[in-house]
Design a protein that fits this description.
The complex is a heterodimer of chains A (about 70) and B (about 375).
Chain A: E1 2-6, H1 9-21, E2 27-30, E3 42-46, H2 51-60, E4 67-70
Antiparallel strand pairs in A: 1-3, 1-4, 2-3
Helix pairs in contact in A: 1-2
Chain B: E1 2-3, H1 15-28, H2 38-58, E2 65-68, H3 71-82, E3 87-92, H4 97-108, E4 112-117, H5 123-133, E5 138-144, H6 156-166, E6 169-173, E7 192-196, E8 208-212, H7 250-266, H8 268-286, E9 292-294, E10 304-309, H9 314-323, E11 326-327, E12 329-331, H10 336-342, E13 349-353, H11 360-376
Parallel strand pairs in B: 1-11, 3-4, 3-5, 5-6, 6-7
Antiparallel strand pairs in B: 2-8, 7-8, 9-10, 10-13, 12-13
Helix pairs in contact in B: 1-7, 2-7, 3-4, 8-11
Classes of the chains: A alpha+beta (about 70), B alpha/beta (about 375).
């Protein structure tokens, strides 16, 4: 699974909506502290098969993500 | 009971609001934005839905909706985060203490200077009044959209255009106008709109919002936990977390969200027309009693009337109406600037304010009581 790391829960929910508008199922997850140097952070988890479409969805909704993690 | 104090808070609330507050507390009230377990996420989703509704209604972006305790907190956050120290601020002569006091304190601490512009005259005259007060270092203008004593509605679209042209931050106090008049942040060039849930938007008390249309802030205002960037000493530098320290009131926001859906389904222009009908009826009936002194300005027609009865203190009128089962508000309504301008005197005045649940029958019963009192004294 892929996780797009975003700024906060608010952005994670915004990202979830953006992915849904591209028919991509996702869930909001809290990131492991090791994934970020600054402490608590959130992301949206989705099937990596949708990675290309997901990146387009986030870009089209102007949602910045710091990295794509894999789990 | 007849409730005519809707400018203080609308009452009653729609059933969908009370139902959702109860449902939230019983079913899903986790701490939003703090965990990824189902209750926390469900709460966060509801809050995000409320942000989306506000963004839709006021033409903003979801992430720029910052929830606060009420309009006063929203105004304090907007003013104190956007103000550049050692600059000049303009406010109107109709401002509530929620605008006047923060600006006054900043000026007393020599962090800014300020002037008050007159709202008398036509829209063009108001704009000219503002222009005449602008200084080279004017950086902010804070103005109420509609006064809480109901005598003036400011041309915020024109003021916003002027502020944009002059590079001045424009903060709007929408306490009385949100849900009553259309407000669009982007087209009206508003940098920050401050609103309550519990007045014209028919939500519960305990929540308000500031909706920003800028991302350039001078500083945070309240610091604390935000659920993100926990290892950093400073607050996050992005909205809404920059201004949302501490746990949000999820049940109140959930109720607010349902209120917004309800309001959008009804069409606020129809509600406004209903309230203006009651205003016009009251205004015409006031003219039949020579002892009633109404306070009008220009051609205002809205949902709030201010008046006195000759030789009777406003507090006595309020008490008398309360005994008759009619709720109004007397005194100065936290707006000393407006009362001074209207010359209401040492005792202030009586305010009646209408909402969606009022009827013409309420107006006739109010008038019966006022006529009875004015004959007695």
């Amino acid at each position: 699974m892929c996780i797009a790391s975003v700024k906060s829960m608010t952005y994670a929910l915004k990202a979830k909506r953006a992915l849904a508008s591209y028919y991509i199922n996702s869930e909001v997850v809290k990131l492991d502290s090791s994934a970020t140097k600054s402490g608590c952070a959130y992301g949206v988890k989705f099937d990596c098969i949708n990675l290309y479409a997901a990146e387009n969805a986030l870009k089209s909704h102007n949602i910045k993500y710091s990295q794509i993690l894999t789990s | 009971m007849i409730y005519l104090d809707n400018a203080a808070t609308t009452f009653p609330k729609p059933l969908c609001v009370t139902d959702e507050i109860s449902r939230c507390i019983k079913k899903y009230c986790g701490n939003p934005g703090r965990s990824s377990h189902q209750l926390s996420v469900k709460s966060a989703e509801k809050i995000y839905e409320a942000r989306s509704m506000l963004a839709k209604m006021f033409d903003g972006d979801e992430e720029n909706v910052v929830f606060t305790l009420n309009t006063t907190y929203a105004l304090n956050i907007a003013i104190k985060s956007l103000i550049k120290y050692s600059t000049h601020v303009l406010i109107s002569d109709m401002e509530h203490n929620s605008v006047f006091r923060p600006i006054y304190r900043l000026s007393k601490e020599k962090l800014c200077t300020f002037d008050i512009f007159s709202t008398g005259g036509t829209d063009e005259e108001i704009i000219n009044n503002i222009i005449s007060k602008i200084k080279p270092n004017t950086s902010m203008l804070v103005a109420t959209h509609q006064s809480n004593v109901g005598v003036r509605k400011l041309p915020i679209e024109k003021i916003g255009q002027l502020c944009k042209e002059r590079g001045i931050k424009f903060i709007v106090d929408g306490a009385q106008s949100a849900g009553v008049h259309p407000i669009k942040l982007k087209s009206m060039n508003i940098d920050a709109l401050c609103i309550p849930a519990h007045k014209g938007l028919y939500g519960p008390q305990g929540v308000g919002a500031v909706i920003f249309n800028t991302d350039k802030f001078e500083r945070s205002v309240i610091e604390g936990g935000t659920g993100v960037n926990s290892l950093e000493e400073n607050m996050p530098d992005f909205l809404p977390e920059l201004f949302e320290a501490g746990t949000l009131p999820t049940p109140a926001i959930a109720g607010f969200c349902e209120a917004l859906k309800w309001l959008i389904s009804l069409d606020i222009s129809k509600i406004r027309a209903h309230e203006e009908d009651l205003y016009n009826l009251t205004s015409s009936l006031f003219k039949e009693n020579k002892k009633i002194i109404p306070y009008y300005m220009n051609d205002y027609s809205g949902n709030t009337l201010l008046f006195n009865i000759k030789n009777i203190p406003s507090s006595t009128v309020g008490e008398y109406l309360n005994k008759k089962g009619i709720c109004v508000r007397s005194g100065f309504h936290c707006s000393p600037l407006a009362h001074r301008l209207l010359n209401t005197g040492d005792g202030g005045a009586v305010r009646v304010s209408f909402g969606i649940y009022n009827s013409r029958s309420d107006v006739y019963q109010l008038m019966d009581a006022l006529n009875e009192l004015s004959v007695k004294k």
